[in-house]
Amino acid sequence: MEALEILLRYVVDIAIVGFEFVGVFIIVLAGLRGIRDYVKKNRLIRLNLATGMALGLEFKLGSEILRTVVVRELSEIATVAAIIALRAALTFLIHWEIKVEKADEEEMKRVIK
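User: That's the sequence. What structure does it adopt?
Assistant: Structure tokens below.
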């Protein structure tokens, strides 16, 4: 049984690092794309940036949820819960921003026609 627990911890630790890496990579790419869109005066810059940040945060949130599998102490659980709550709130706000930006874009399309 102890061997399975060690294996679980090992697999979860690798998955956490993988999700964190992918999340950071996506956020960096979204930021670089945002810079490119700003230089090119792309009017969808906010929508593209928010979408990339939301996707990156989803991966980072996934890593925090996995982290709950291996925590042992109440203080660790409280820390992980606070991080999850903050990331979930950020994700919610970014998704709201995406919804507003898409609505604005649709309104612009209707006005142009």
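The chain has a mean pLDDT of 88.
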